[in-house]
Amino acid sequence: GVQCVVVGIDSYFDAQSGHYQVKQFTGDESRTRTTAWHTLDWIQEAQQRGAGEIVLNVMNQDGMRQGYDLEQLALARYVCKVPLIASGGAGAMAHFRDAFTVADVDGALAASVFHKGIIPIPELKRWLRTQGVAIRD
């Protein structure tokens, strides 16, 4: 199905313009560029092109462990009609809960908190269930 085609979007909040912009070539700082796309417009375009799922990485938050950008995720949820995965910022179990309950995302991606054993996945899943978040086994 269409869900097997996942589009990853690296989004950056530009405080000067007040806009979320899509970045490209983010794996290499010397090549990273801001595109002409505003993030919400690109989410809509990606869906029109057939994306079955969107992973939205908020670069300002990525690796900071200060929480997901709930404002941007909530705006994205409004225009995103396919599964939306939050990425960038998880540092505590409450950050995952907030992504699900405040921004209404379908999934939450994290890296360092799992790689470094800061949050054990089974413990997170148990805790999220106690918070009323539907979690698969």
Automatic annotation (TrEMBL):
<dbReference type="InterPro" id="IPR050064">
    <property type="entry name" value="IGPS_HisA/HisF"/>
</dbReference>
<dbReference type="GO" id="GO:0000105">
    <property type="term" value="P:L-histidine biosynthetic process"/>
</dbReference>
<comment type="similarity">
    <text>Belongs to the HisA/HisF family.</text>
</comment>
<dbReference type="InterPro" id="IPR011060">
    <property type="entry name" value="RibuloseP-bd_barrel"/>
</dbReference>
<comment type="pathway">
    <text>Amino-acid biosynthesis.</text>
</comment>
<keyword id="KW-0368">Histidine biosynthesis</keyword>
<protein>
    <submittedName>
        <fullName>Imidazole glycerol phosphate synthase subunit HisF</fullName>
    </submittedName>
</protein>
<keyword id="KW-0028">Amino-acid biosynthesis</keyword>
<dbReference type="InterPro" id="IPR006062">
    <property type="entry name" value="His_biosynth"/>
</dbReference>
<dbReference type="Pfam" id="PF00977">
    <property type="entry name" value="His_biosynth"/>
</dbReference>
<dbReference type="GO" id="GO:0000107">
    <property type="term" value="F:imidazoleglycerol-phosphate synthase activity"/>
</dbReference>
<dbReference type="InterPro" id="IPR013785">
    <property type="entry name" value="Aldolase_TIM"/>
</dbReference>
